[in-house]
Amino acid sequence: MVRYFFEDIKFEYKNRLFNNRWLKMVAESEICRLGDLNVIFCSDPYILDINIKYLGHDYFTDIITFDYSRKPLISGDLFISIDSVRENSQFYGTEFQEELHRVIVHGVLHLIGYDDHAESDIAVMRSKEDYYLKLRKGLSGDK
Length: 143
Fold this sequence. Notes:
The protein is of the alpha/beta class. It is built from 5 helices and 4 strands. Helix 1 (16-29) links the parallel strand 1 and strand 2 (33-42).
């Protein structure tokens, strides 16, 4: 089950049921099942606090993923900074919604087991993100 939460920001996320079906499809395409997934939308200061407190990193990021998976069942918390997603969409010249969905699927790919520390891992992760974003666009009902 996918649940959506909003911490310290005013933000509306539409098409949740469609997004849930898409994420379920992503998991199943990777031979996993979608368990409990919490998507928590927040601000830069909120995610920075989490990054410092729980990971010991003193920098901003667009997403922090906490993995509670027991493969093949994937579960976790995705903390997503709406501020950083907006900045990234401007920097990369993408639509905000596309960048937001890229970050969401990025977190799900981490839960599945993909990493992005080495250059080769980053290339695989980006390829997977692109594939699932294209698949999302092809599904009826995407807005």
